[in-house]
Known about the structure:
Blueprint: E1 2-6, H1 10-23, E2 29-31, H2 37-42, E3 45-49, H3 53-57, E4 64-67, H4 73-78, E5 85-87, H5 92-110, H6 113-121, E6 137-141, H7 145-156, E7 160-165, E8 175-178, H8 179-188, E9 192-195, H9 209-213, E10 219-223, H10 232-241, E11 244-249, H11 262-265, E12 269-271, H12 281-298
Parallel strand pairs: 1-2, 1-3, 3-4, 4-5, 6-7, 6-9, 7-8, 9-10, 10-11, 11-12
Helix pairs in contact: 1-12, 5-7
The chain binds NADPH dihydro-nicotinamide-adenine-dinucleotide phosphate (NDP).
NADPH dihydro-nicotinamide-adenine-dinucleotide phosphate (NDP) binds near residues 198, 224 and 276.
Amino acid sequence: xxxxxxxxxxxxxxxxxxxxxxxxxxxxxxxxxxxxxxxxxxxxxxxxxxxxxxxxxxxxxxxxxxxxxxxxxxxxxxxxxxxxxxxxxxxxxxxxxxxxxxxxxxxxxxxxxxxxxxxxxxxxxxxxxxxxxxxxxxxxxxxxxxxxxxxxxxxxxxxxxxxxxxxxxxxxxxxxxxxxxxxxxxxxxxxxxxxxxxxxxxxxxxxxxxxxxxxxxxxxxxxxxxxxxxxxxxxxxxxxxxxxxxxxxxxxxxxxxxxxxxxxxxxxxxxxxxxxxxxxxxxxxxxxxxxxxxxxxxxxxxxxxxxxxxx
Length: 311
Ligand code: NDP
């Protein structure tokens, strides 16, 4: 028996349980709330979707949890020294979806769509100078699962791409920077900056006044990672000054974004409802099923997140 532990509403939980059960016909997947006390004692594995940490603490014999979400920072932050491993979703289909979103919104900024939308509203016929893709410098913060595939997709579409990670990396066609020194270099040459970093104590507020000021004047910004990586006041100031010309934001400090938030009506901000790379239940369930099957065969647990590193 494998509990599904989630804060999602009952109908979303049913969708997940149906998809997981279909991918694992030999397993019984049940909502956490339906477990008896005895069953709670027996669980060594749980499948989770943004769970309440209190629920996980009621499963004392857990060895690992498999998240159907890619980002697991909430669990990392809210659970103090968990006795079990946290495995996050790594799903090539989701990665591909993210790279598609990165390409789409990069093209939106590259082809000056925000300007032409505003010009149409004001009935203005004015052509901006054309910039070739190879002359548009794109910086990708984070060269992990999502960052690397997204960077490569941009390279394949003719852009001049650089990327930044904690450790040194080699990615074909991408100029790679790492560490604190590397960040300044990357920012100073990013006409469009794309954030695909995990939220950790080191990345929280990383895109604040100082780092935003290192971008070329008029740069575009895309945040598809987590809201708190951006200092909202600093971004609003940079937008006001024109230092950042337009921001595409999919993630926010508070979600849903409150209806009175200034971003909603800001003409140089595109608001997306955390949609750049949603988890697809069928695709994710297949990945989870493969990992559970391997665990049942030889007790091997997939690579877990590093709690010290925070991702
Ligand atoms: P990974 O863990 O695979 O990659 C993280 C990357 O960030 C790595 O390259 C890592 O460096 C780098 N990094 C982490 N900390 C630092 C730091 N302090 N300085 C420099 N580089 C750093 O994560 P994913 O690519 O799978 O996902 C990234 C994030 O995207 C997730 O954490 C999640 O928050 C978000 N996400 C958003 C979605 C959406 O719909 N908006 C959907 C899915 C995910 P190194 O390689 O050296 O370790």
